[in-house]
């Protein structure tokens, strides 16, 4: 038939023979229709049918199959399910077309069940793969859709009964009517059916044991009994299988009620060139059958005799011409039977696979739509004319092209697919297709090495779409090799990781870890044996576990608690993992044995620069001495990561190290744990042996790094092999209180030194101290070495940049340069320059140095001096002051006359992260460098506490050659001090000897100070008077800057340095309350040194003895002996008392923890609270508030997420409380409010969330955002009553009171009529609440006038007037109310309200009057009912 069909009246036709030339033409370019003029009737023929019309009529003389052109919108068509997934169906249509059916297009009942499943109720839900078997016959309404991206037209097929049967009338339903209905409800004795026919109720009787259908499932039904009524009909149906859909032939049948899929009797009337023409329903309707829709694929038209009847299935009916198209193929296979055929002996043969090649396919004929082939002597195939034409561009000779497809010629073809309706294979003989090795997914297996060609960038996955032959592939971002340039058309070598049959795509990776010859890829669960090692990629990192993905979508979980060390992971990390256990499809992992130990230094190659740090590769010779194919030693490659913080000890140099270590460069790194390496620790591990659990001793000073830090506790990982537990140090124990209110800011991976205080062998636990005085000897020479190492590191960065020809490497600190002024940075207000007019190197004059000076004109030239070079940002920090230019020299050597000198006046020019840059006030000298911290453990930055940019200070030099200094106040405190703490270079034996007694002495001192306060003070006083002579005799000479000095000089006078029991004030281990009693008396000759801004006194102990003996040692030793003696003399009675006292103390602790009303003050207490009440949102909110009060925003956010995952899904209100808190946090502390709001709307009742959001926005005064939210609420929930008063209150709050009346009118238009009164009353209350009593009275007055029997409205009206102080108005309203003719119960309420008003606000006379009126009303009512 014609592509564009027209409507013409029905009538007889006269057939003419088609010409041969036209037949060949129509075969290639499609069938056509012919307009035939009816022969004029003989007037004398009175026997002719008087109803026969004498018109022209279009007649189909070709049984052309369905195509995209002839398919009309909303046309009903039969299809066969080709593929079923959980969320969609792929359906084969006539004409080798395909359509998709989505979840929402099945039935109304199934849509309801799917929505319930999304909300958590899966009791009635079954996915589409369960409900629709492959090969199942369906019919539906075809819908054409055009893809905007490609412009191609695709088809959707709606199976909804309401869409398919919407045009049918319930009065026209007859017994025997066959249709497809959906199960709307399952009852005890059958199914309630969703028929889609307006006014038709259908029921299928079926007892409960025999019920096999599910809610929403479609089934073919046949009407057994029907009862009609004017507005509604009821029918009883039975379920029928798809091979039993026969309709009896009737003379007066409406064609609209013969639905696709039905089986009818077809009578052959004529053989056409491409099919059969005939009629159905006792020759009532014309019908056509295409040559590809015969009963058997290889049948010819001659097999079917004229005037014979055959069973045929309706494919579709053309809507306008009412021409019916059928198929004789009734045996459409279902499920696994699809594509199977039977040979002559009745045995089934396996179907040809898609992608397989048939070497000798014989041409049978040139048929409709393509060249018909015989495959393997038993199967039918076709090469479409469209695919043949696609190989030719421009003009071509049709006969010449088709000449090679002569009858019985043989061709090599590839199977492209199988059509279940026509029972044939569609093929291609294109050489590019036939000879392609990788044509379909079956040709590729996980683990194969392939070459892929990039053809498109995919922004959704941030990767690339590729082609492997004819197969689609995807390179996801996590699996992309770093430092490789990607572009469309580029060929890359990849390994196949997964083949997805569902998505018809394979997933690849071109990372070097997967391309190695020895790479083992896990592609089958059966191969996941415990102990096997496979390469995998980290796809998700959580606090407690790491999710790893292997081949074919296999995933495993690596629990962090199973790791010996606290390894660090990042998403996209590809490495080897060991199978720990496997239970069915659940795999737990661990890491292979450590190839590298803590402190081992390895040559590494940088492979990629990430935000998290540097990705590295280590190449080592294989342990088993294997050789590769070329005879070279086999090399094993290991990957790891150098985190950003482990590149340097100094924050400002981290990104500079990233610059000098590009991909492909080589360096050395020290192993910190399994796959984590460090650059900053190479020097440390190179200089000494790494300690392990056996060799670590009490008193050792060890490097450690911060794992986690809170306001109270710091978790540290110590550099001890075979010791993987974090040690805890309290933040208070890090403070020296040298600087008042100095904040302690610790970040992960920060370096700290710790001193081992105890070693518990049984529990394998170390107790450490990170206090500055415990790990540092107090020698400022160590501080000078620390600054010197910093300067050396800066010099190395400069040298590396110079090798890379970086422009900034040409400049040094102190150089005089010419700069060009560019402008002022609007954010920092710094002056921006460029050097020598070149834009490559920028220079900054900080606003603190510029001061109040007037900025120069843009483009003007100036001279400046380089103060510092920021290699991370590629910026020179300069000064344009004439004094600085004249007095700063570029030489880095310190003048000999300044060595060891103190009291020099200097100006602070820059204060950086690690150092302070100063300039001496007099003379021409190099810039002086002062440390921010005296030691890595100087967390209070006491070395630079009083220094500010632009201030002058006195400094003292602490290095013999370099201009390194500290403030004079700091120098006077620490000069010459050499404490009992042991430096890192001290041998292990010395450490052990010095520190064996220290922990015991400290513990005893603390205990004695608490229990025997008076006795201890007395003894200390006595000892303080007796020991000075002894100490003076034992003190050796101290070397200071290479010279011997018997006593330190203070202002030129030799004096004994002040002592506090032989130790610095911050060493006192006794409680603060005992400080006064333990302070020794002095003779008034002590000298006090203060840090700028420090209120507390800092006294130093100078000239210690070589053996570190002091008064404190003697006192502690004596107290220890006394305490030990006292313990030995304890009687049994005293021991019993001590036990009772200890038990009482423990009982008090337990009672305090068990008291629900006790005030919570720690994280542990809040953790116990939420564990005890996991579903109580109040407990979680208290915990969150506690964290927010400590500015722990991230932890509070994580806790809210944890609460959401912990609280039961049934506790909807509790969950909404947590979501509200999370939304409030995101609004106040971050910019993720919109994303969290979307998530909250998906997880909760949207209306409830929106109501909470309105309150949150009002609380935070977000008027603009609130206006947007209100617009959304009023549009989405216009039929909900409570949203309108909510919006009205918000309008008053935003100052839009003039819009509230219009809002009320919108509410009355959108709400049902039965809710209008409630809405008006609510608005009246809001008006009254906002002091607009006039509008409130108007609204309520209108309501009571229209609805006088609403006693509740009268009461609200009166209460509102009384609250506003309008007593007379309230009295008038009540007088109106008592005049109404109401029931006694209602009148009783009104009179009580009236009487209460008069008693409270009236007089006794008015109250008596009301009583009298009530009595009179009762009498009148009694008389009326008699």
Uncertain segments = 1-58, 980-1120, 1123-1127
| Major sheet characteristics | 5 strands, antiparallel
- The proportion of residues forming helix, as a percent range, comes to 25-40%
The gross shape turns out to be globular
In total, how many beta strands? 58
Widest sheet: strand ordering: 5-4-3-6-7
Q: Mean pLDDT, rounded to whole units?
A: 79
CA-CA gap between termini:
87 Å
The computed structural class is: alpha+beta
Descriptive terms for the model:
alpha+beta, five-stranded antiparallel sheet, 1426 residues, 28% helix, 37 helices, single chain
Concise structural overview:
This protein is of the alpha+beta class and 1426 residues long.
Please describe the topology of this protein.
Layout: H1 20-29, E1 33-36, E2 57-60, E3 76-84, E4 88-93, E5 97-102, H2 108-118, H3 128-131, E6 137-146, E7 153-158, H4 161-164, E8 178-187, E9 190-194, E10 200-205, E11 218-228, E12 233-239, E13 263-272, E14 275-280, E15 285-290, E16 309-317, E17 324-327, E18 341-342, E19 348-349, E20 357-367, E21 370-375, E22 379-384, H5 385-389, H6 398-402, E23 410-419, E24 424-428, H7 431-434, E25 449-458, E26 463-468, E27 471-475, E28 491-500, E29 505-509, H8 512-515, E30 533-541, E31 545-549, E32 555-559, E33 574-583, E34 586-590, E35 601-610, E36 613-621, E37 635-643, H9 654-660, E38 666-673, E39 676-678, H10 682-687, E40 701-709, E41 713-718, E42 727-730, E43 751-760, E44 765-769, H11 772-775, H12 780-803, E45 816-824, E46 831-835, E47 838-845, H13 847-850, E48 861-870, E49 875-879, H14 882-887, E50 902-911, E51 915-920, E52 928-931, E53 952-957, E54 965-967, H15 968-974, H16 988-995, H17 998-1011, H18 1013-1026, H19 1028-1034, E55 1038-1040, E56 1043-1045, E57 1049-1050, E58 1053-1054, H20 1075-1078, H21 1111-1128, H22 1132-1154, ...
Parallel strand pairs: 10-12, 15-17, 22-24, 27-29, 47-49
Antiparallel strand pairs: 1-2, 3-4, 3-6, 4-5, 6-7, 8-9, 8-11, 9-10, 11-12, 13-14, 13-16, 14-15, 16-17, 18-19, 20-21, 20-23, 21-22, 23-24, 25-26, 25-28, 26-27, 28-29, 30-31, 30-33, 31-32, 33-34, 35-36, 35-38, 36-37, 38-39, 40-41, 40-43, 41-42, 43-44, 45-46, 45-48, 46-47, 48-49, 50-51, 50-53, ...
Helix pairs in contact: 17-21, 23-24, 24-25, 24-26, 25-26, 26-27, 26-28, 27-28, 28-29, 28-30, 29-30, 30-31, 30-32, 32-33, 33-34, 34-35, 34-36, 35-36, 36-37
